[in-house]
Amino acid sequence: MKAMLIKSAEGLRGTTPADHDAWSRFARKLEVMKPGTCLRMEWSRPRNGPQHRRLFALLQVVAENSETYGTPEQALIAVKLAAGYCDDAIDPRTGNTVPVVRSIRYEAMDQQTFERFYAAAFEAVLQLILPAMDRATLKRLIAMVEEGWA
User: Fold this and answer.
1) Which helix (H) or strand (E) holds 88?
2) Distance of CA 148 to CAs 27, 53, 94, 125, Å?
3) How far apart are CA 60 and CA 112, in angstroms?
4) Which of 26, 51, 105, 141 has the most CB within a 10 Å radius?
């Protein structure tokens, strides 16, 4: 089960109806669980949702304005590489060093790390991926995507 929860005066609640339903089902299972039953749990504090959506708006702008990266998925890989958000690995076939991009999943990075990544990604887009686009235009296009214009 994955659900986004929020602490309220009454306890934990799902942030959406689907999340609340999943949490309620889990809470009921806890009530009837037999002693000695094991659970494996993971938890994290989620990042800033609007900022996460802003990254995907940036990727949409790259996909729409790049001749090389036609989808947000391709743009994400390019942005990660351009921003240096990768690790080096040795290709066993050639012995050459190749970059392997890191994950940006909620579980993979905290808010502070994500903020640094977004700043580096934004600058990388301006400098390396869409160098003909100015900062104000890029910000305006991102805002248009966020607002649902594109």
Assistant:
1) strand 86-90
2) 37, 12, 45, 21
3) 23
4) 141
Calpha distance 71→61 (Å, rounded): 10
Radius of gyration of the chain (CA): 20
| Predicted confidence (pLDDT) per residue in 74-98, tens digit | 999 999 999 999 999 999 999 999 9
Which of the 8 DSSP states describes residue 126?
A: I
Q: Which amino acid is at 31?
A: E
Tell the burial category of 49 from Cβ atoms under 10 Å away from its Cβ (0-12, 13-18, 19+).
exposed
| Residues near 144 by beta carbon (within 8 Å), at least 6 away in sequence | 150
* Token pair for 60: 């949409």
8 Å CB contact between 75 and 63: yes
Over residues 49-82, the pLDDT tens digits come to 788 899 999 999 999 999 999 999 999 999 999 9
